[in-house]
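Submission checklist for the structure archive. All mandatory fields must be present; incomplete records are returned to the submitter.

[x] Identifier: MBL fold metallo-hydrolase
[x] Organism: Facklamia lactis
[x] Residue count: 329
[x] Sequence attached
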Amino acid sequence: MQEIAKNIYTFNVSLPNTALKQLNVYVIKGEDRNVIFDTGYNLPESKTDLLQGIKELGLEVKDFDLVLTHLHSDHTGLASLFEEAGCNIYAGKIDGDLLNQMATESYWDHFSDRHAYYATEKGQFSREDNPGYALRLGRKLDYIELKIGELFQVGEYTFKVMDLKGHTPGHIGLYDAENGQIFSADTVLDPITPNITYWGEDYPNILGSYLDTLRSLIQLDLKVMYATHRKIIDNPRQRMEDLIQHHYERLQEILDAMNPEESYTVEDVSAKITWRVKVKSWSDFPKSQKFFATGETMSHLDYLVHSGHVEQRVEDETYYFTKVKDQLF
């Protein structure tokens, strides 16, 4: 347990069997209410750590309002614990609605159909390969919408609800302009990079949206970003500039991997670019890692389609891509 600012605390919740390892949970203690940000997985290990952290603060679950920054199961898995205790649960509308859709089988039927378009071997991925399905909420949440631009008061702090879309379509953050601090969750991480995946045609060019989010945050007078994995970000501008550069380099790497006039599937491209996964070749990737890798490659190809560098066509219910420009800039 660490007090990182006046009445703002953080502690770790374990995320077993994942490369992320743990979640940084944040708590603001106020006279009128206490607010906790995100929860950890709906797994015994996460629940034990969460309850222990709450106990160390001299509080109980019922003493909190819960803010869900985005829909991922490592952030929302224990939300039902707070709902059952009668707590207010807050979320942005886009991710809140998606989170509730994900509690249904019909969402995952649609998801599997969409994902098949960029999986070369039909049926090689099942919904069980996605931890979002395995660890999804068992039922829909009755949440209170946090509207973009509205103010959210906790103790001596006044936050503005920010649209941080990119990591998910409706990722939100809470920004305190007076103190130059923001609860930014998975928008900016260090030293790892946030996963930017493809969310389908309903959310076109999600990577472009993410880069726009970073550019808008760079314009703020930020001193600290409370990231929910790894380190608290104490060099916001530099880290965001590094992330933008990382994605530009990734986009150029994809263009360099494609020969003009030749068509590629998403998996073809994924196999030709570099990954920080300790395996000898693409064929050795664990299924769950392949799942995330192809989603990330797809988001970058979608960006290149929207920027006019790559053309896309659908053939036999599979996406194919052809390079038409060699250089990103």
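[x] Structure attached
Curator remark: Residues 250-323 form a domain with the Arc Repressor Mutant, subunit A fold (CATH 1.10.10). Residues 116 and 123 are 7 Å apart (CA to CA).
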